[in-house]
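input
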Amino acid sequence: MIRNPSPVHAVTDVLYSRRLKVENLVINYDIRNTNHVRLLLILSSYRKPDLNLNNGFLSTESLDKETTLKKIDEIIRTLSSSKKPSTILTDDEIKSIKNVDTEDKPKLVNRLEDLVVLLRDDPDNKQKINDLRMIAFDEFGHVSPVRDVLESVKSLF
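output
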């Protein structure tokens, strides 16, 4: 036997029921259910990487200052063929960094090293930081990990 919900119960369900749409996935949830809330917290922290480079949408969220500097250091180490394993860069990012032309690698390393020195020693010199960032972006903005850290530098410094 199917029981009809009471009008009061139906009203509270409407008050507590929510709908979340993530791309093509629609999730109905109840804010009173702690499992639903946990799941939503997990989903809200997840972000699918955007592989379309022509839409102007960043593939990662902005990083904090320390993570940005560490990521630049790891890009420099990867370009310099360091044996130290990467802790921040993904395999795809390492692959795209290694695909930079061998003639351009020293140039990119120099640009990033100059930028790191400025960011660490003189973070208040916004004009110089922006000039270096723009030069590196114009020359190497097509390399996704480089583009991501340079956009992060733009938003943070």
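quick obs: The chain has a mean pLDDT of 75.
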